[in-house]
Amino acid sequence: MTVRVAMWSGPRNISTAMMRSWENRPDTVVVDEPFYAAFLARTGLDHPARDEVIASQPTDVDQVVAGLLAPLPAGRTVHYAKLMTHHLAPGQDLAWARGLRNVMLIRDPVEVVASYVKSREACEPDDIGLLQQVDLLDQLDAQPPVIDAADFLRDPEAHLRWLCDWLGLPFTDRMLAWPAGPRDSDGIWAPHWYDAVWASTGFAPYRPREVDLSSHDAGVAEACRPAYERLRALRIHP
């Protein structure tokens, strides 16, 4: 039986490390942000390697969805999709997602914004995915598990064991460590964003962040806090 995991996140979370964890399973195929090119083509936003991203993926949403539901290679039974909620179009039909095993990955918006503005000049509430995560939550038939990144990094093994059990999959300690370096599965944008993950060999321990946001950026984080708190109230407790 094929298990299709949809891990919904915003940017500057532990989403790429989580993708590494799942890719290190011998039964799993991963896909990295498959809606990114469609998002850039639709919005016209100028992101690093914009033209290369658009050339590397389908920009037609139906094509992307078809790829997410396509048969897996021989010997693989798990499909893991790293999905960014801010890549979804407003009003996008998400009926296809109801057939997947959906999971939400969240992070405190103050930490997300602080990390985001190190790489981007501007940040607005729609950029960090939390508002869209709540919209997605309201569209799904079943409440997905919610994983808070801070909780996860305090005990990755307990969270991964819980998630594997929920999915009906055996846990393997291969999910806790992986070889450093890039992967063929990384999006073409990886050189601009994945330096820390490329250098990693496992999940970094949680440490509180000291942040100093501008008044604008603090306002962005505050605008997203109600969405974060709603999702956080649903988080799992392994």
Q: What can you see in these coordinates?
A:
- With 238 residues, this protein is α/β, with parallel strands linked by helices.
- It has one domain (3-232): P-loop containing nucleotide triphosphate hydrolases (Rossmann fold), CATH 3.40.50.300.
- Helices cover 41% and strands 12% of the residues.
- Strands 2-3-1-4-5 form a 5-stranded parallel β-sheet.
- The protein is globular.
- The mean pLDDT is 95.
Any descriptors?
238 residues, globular, five-stranded parallel β-sheet, 11 helices, alpha/beta, Rossmann fold
| Strands ordered across the widest β-sheet | 2-3-1-4-5
In the CATH scheme, what's the topology name?
Rossmann fold
Provide the low-confidence segments as ranges.
Answer: none
Please report the first level of CATH classification, the CATH class.
Answer: Alpha Beta
Q: CATH superfamily, called what? A: P-loop containing nucleotide triphosphate hydrolases
Beta-strand residue percentage: 5-15%
Total separate domains: 1
| Oligomeric form | single chain
In the CATH hierarchy, what is the architecture at level 2? 3-Layer(aba) Sandwich
Q: From N to C, what is the helix and strand string?
A: EHEHHHEEHHEHHHHH
